[in-house]
Amino acid sequence: MSWWQQWTWPSRLRSKGIIGMNRRNIRYIGRYNNRRLYPLVDDKLKTKLLAQSHGITTPALIGTVETQFGVKHIGDILKGHQGFVIKPAKGSGGKGILVIERVSDANDFIKPSGVRLSLTDVERHVSNILSGLYSLGGSPDVAVIETLINFDESLMAYSYEGVPDIRVIIFNGYPVMAMMRLSTAASDGKANLHQGAVGVGLDMASGYALRGVQFDRSCTHHPDTGRDLASLVVPQWETLLNLAASCYEMTGLGYLGTDMVLDRQHGPMLLELNARPGLAIQMTNGEGLRRRLDLIERQPSGVSPEKRVAFAQHHFARRSELLDSTDTPLPSA
């Protein structure tokens, strides 16, 4: 039985603290996010440049393509790079993101799935990005080319042909709730829950897995690798939370979704930001956002990111649902 079938009645949803789109849009996004700041997060290139100016680590920028004339120079831009990611600056939901894991001796561009693309295929994809095929509202776009993330080795067994990312909801600078998104064969190697990625709720105190969900149903193991989700823990958890919390000062947005990745060399990195983060994080955590958001609204302003993180770790700690009652409790910090 899926989570929404268990919580069908509105009274049960309210008792769980579940918030819907209307409350999210009016109570939090409308009240705490100034619309003039949206371009800072809706445009991935602007987000990257802003993050760099604030000393926040992001994947290195290889280059950009802004005009159809520039598409023919994509081969020169990519020369010497064995792995890279091409994405639309104004895309959403993972649409239009092309991941190339390596380049063969025959100059074929090989995706994580093993599919081979020619330079013409890559040029066509970039041209589609520029035409607005993947952008919000279909407006003309810019293709952003970044270095490939070498994600932390400890997480390899939990993802299939793709980089797992961590979504953290930040409210008034406080980390409120977090989940990891694990790519699968069904999601075509993308960390997109709607396409079949596994969502894993994370304990705010420790970064340990709380519960797993795929296609609205509970799961305890990765469907492709078979790895037990109960053993999943995010390395450098406190560093990651501090990085996410500092995005509040960086953007000025009060209600924010931060998408982070873990690079084996550079540690936690900011992938992108979202001024309208989705609500599926409640499903992966098996808990609603409302009680946590209500508590944060009562907190004073002017608190440092480190203290905000410490507050969240203390007040939002949970025990994993993936553990048996006989298991040793996870550490709280």
UniProtKB/TrEMBL annotation:
Pfam families xrefs: ATPgrasp_ST
Parts of the chain that traverse the membrane: none
Ranges of residues in domain ATP-grasp: 48-304
Domain of life, per lineage: Bacteria
Keyword Manganese: yes
InterPro entries xref list: ATP-grasp, RimK-rel_E_lig, RimK-rel_E_lig_ATP-grasp
Keyword Nucleotide-binding tagged: yes
Keywords: ATP-binding, Manganese, Nucleotide-binding
Protein name (database record): Alpha-L-glutamate ligase-like protein
Organism of this sequence: Vreelandella vilamensis
